[in-house]
Automatic annotation (TrEMBL), chain A:
Protein name as annotated: ATP synthase subunit c
Primary residence: membrane
Record function comment: F(1)F(0) ATP synthase produces ATP from ADP in the presence of a proton or sodium gradient. F-type ATPases consist of two structural domains, F(1) containing the extramembraneous catalytic core and F(0) containing the membrane proton channel, linked together by a central stalk and a peripheral stalk. During catalysis, ATP synthesis in the catalytic domain of F(1) is coupled via a rotary mechanism of the central stalk subunits to proton translocation. Key component of the F(0) channel; it plays a direct role in translocation across the membrane. A homomeric c-ring of between 10-14 subunits forms the central stalk rotor element with the F(1) delta and epsilon subunits.
PROSITE patterns: ATPASE_C
From TrEMBL, chain B:
Membrane-crossing segments per the record: 98-119
The protein, known as: ATP synthase subunit I
Membrane topology: Multi-pass membrane protein
Compartment(s) of residence: Cell membrane
Keyword Cell membrane: yes
Amino acid sequence: MGALAAAIAIGLAALGAGLGNGMIVSRTVEGIARQPELRGALQTTMFIGVALVEAIPIFAVVIAFMVMGQ
Amino acid sequence: MQQYKKMITRQRKWMFYLLAIFVLGAGFTEYLSIFLGLLLGTVLSFYNLWLMQRKINQFGQALAENTSSPKGIGSFSRLATAGLAVIIALRFEEYFHLTAVIIGLMTTYVVIMIDFALFRSRD
């Protein structure tokens, strides 16, 4: 059951992070393609967005490894 | 571009300050395993931060200059780093406090959020 719990935790977190990251990156790509001179500001926004999105899957990985390690 | 470079420098500076505080805590206080755990988590978290800054910069460069195709933003490597931290903490349980390692792993995100909150109007 531990392996199943770990798999569900990582899988669902990765699903959410994938969707979130995809939305952030697609908008940034659009923005930089339209206005390359705004690259710095768009990159900064993308950086903060990616960081916030990825905090949760990292927690999920930690919990999954803890469940597996017990 | 200047805005991104300034943000990178500020975040690195804060991470180095935090690392220095944790080293001092490990050296001069009685809570050795807690500070060692914080150090382990923060070092790997700093690697995550560096990787994220580098990958996003390469991504933006590839988009803006149109010289090469963008290569992704390295999410999997960052998740693997978190896994590595937990594996090390579980393997050497007598040296590293597990909760401290997890708090250390989250240091980067706290630094990014505080930096964003403080400097978003200034740049």
